[in-house]
Amino acid sequence: MTRLNRRDLLKAAGAAGALNLAWPLAAGLSPAQALEAAQALGADYDPAPFTLGVASGDPQPESVLLWTRLAPEPLAAEQKLSEIVEVRWVVATDAQLKRVVAEGTVPASATLGHSVHVPVSGLRPNTRYWYAFTALGKRSRIGRTKTAPVGRVSSVRFAAANCQAFHDGFYAAHRGIARENVDFVVHLGDYIYEHGQVGGVPADHVRDHEGPGIFTVADYRRRHALYKGDASLREAHAAHPWFLTWDDHEVVNDYSGTGGGAPFMQRRAAAYQAWYENMPHREGGAGGATALPDPEIHRVRRWGDLLELTVLDLRSYRSAQNLADGTILGAGQKGWLKRNIDRAPDTWHVWANSIMLSQLRSRPGGSYMFTDQWDGFLAERKEVLGHVHSTGMEDLVVITGDWHSAFVDDIRPDYDDVSSPVIGTEFTAHSVTSGAYSASWNATNGPVMGAGNPHLKYFEGNRYGYDVYEVTPERFSAHMRVIDDRRDPVSPVLTLTTFHVDRGKAGSYEDPATKNSPAQYRRD
Fold it and tell me: 165: closest CA among 200, 133, 132, 191?
């Protein structure tokens, strides 16, 4: 086989104007050569057939979902595998897999990309477990997971990540998450990006997409495989159980799940299928629906008596933006959310929310900056937050992605009424890699956004990373963890600043020890 030199590949691709000339569907390039091309662009994989690694998700007190996908040639259009491959799984209480507590065999079908989703039951609450898969005479890497506790809980730590454009940087943030002492991870969306190549490799970008924009199941499978070609992402999946929601780029930018004709609906179905195939997603959400063709991802999960996590889906059921009767939740999910608010227990309430809930005007009294977020659904936002206030639900914290920058906001039922009470806090986290606005834009517009949005307490847009949340019965703390350089795959991680919310007292405050950290806006 002809070997591909990284420098020559990039040079040739740049001269041709498109890197997709050197990818799986291009004539004359074998899957092995395509894999080598990916490696030349900074991707690598676990040993076959478990090239994409392992993962766990949706932890409950007696159960967790285990995932892997057989892809001996991860970037090939089709895998050279039998229609059905038997995959053995094992769960143990030790990292050497000697104290086995559950095991079995599951079929991996070509229909679902040879993915497997194993809901393991009969486990002990609040317990660490290790697991692995075996197929075709090979064993996967060993993953680690944890079940949720029941009853009294003194603390929980969890991380949140979002927006990880492959071409914009290496996943040093996920490398950091893998090394954090957390109980679980919440991914807030934009796990992949659907567009074609951006060019400028290696001058402007560290790497690129494998080809043009994606439309079919095979396209979306390859894009997911490309993203899992970052070792740090696979490491973060193997280290902790994940809860998942999505935003728009898992399908296409700014889409509405209920709009568009047949071509779009076919694209959405392809994207949803590939997402399911490549994620540790448990079937049966709030309504108990099966995974396909429309995975139901909104659900409520408890972490003992300490925390109630509500995972929202803000894409599948939304209408168009800026309609008087528009919906971002859909009637069914909105009714479900309001019923949960009605019977809210005395605990911390955390909403996993993919796009900004809080109002964001461009200047005092000015237009809304982005109506793809909740600002495009004003009546429904006021209805939902008014319901939170009228029922007396306390201790609401909303964790959000999408913006590629960090915000801290007070949540109010009516953002246009300065006397409207504070009923919660929203933390919008930095992106893993996806490009933010320029430093000059942030410096100019941070104070402008602060003046135009009295509920905005903090803005920082020059950095990349993730959040770690530390929760006790008395306090909710948000640690903004940032990397030094997204072009460095092993970039160190540090805490930029920390905000706290005290139990029973709506509103946040910055920790005195980090209050002098850099930011483009900070309300005095």
Answer: 191
> In this structure, are residues 399 and 186 in contact, taking their beta carbons and an 8 Å threshold?
yes
Which of helix, strand or coil describes residue 266?
helix
Cα–Cα–Cα angle for 312, 345, 240, rounded to 5 degrees = 50
State residue 323's pLDDT score: 96
What is residue 440's DSSP assignment? H
Q: Which residues pair with 361 in a beta bridge?
A: 368
**In the chain, how long is the greatest CA-to-CA distance?**
71
Encoded tokens for 169 = 């940087």
List phi, psi (to 5°) of 470.
Answer: -120, 120
At 434, the pLDDT band (50, 70, 90 cuts) reads very high
Residues 6 or more apart whose Cβ sits within 8 Å of residue 232: 170, 171, 172, 173, 174, 175, 178, 489
The pLDDT tens digits of the residues spanning 344-362 come to: 999 999 999 999 999 999 9
Q: How do 299-303 and 241-244 pair as beta strands?
A: unpaired
Between the alpha carbon of residue 305 and those of residues 64, 240, 301, 469, the distances in Å are: 19, 21, 11, 17
Bridge partner residues of 475 (DSSP) = 502
Residues 6 or more apart whose CB falls under 8 angstroms from that of 417 comprise none
- Pick the more confident residue, 29 or 81: 81
Cα–Cα distance, 510 to 455 (Å, whole number): 15
Q: How far apart are CA 356 and CA 401, in angstroms?
A: 7
Structure tokens at 252: 């296409």
Closest CA to 101 of 63, 150, 60: 63
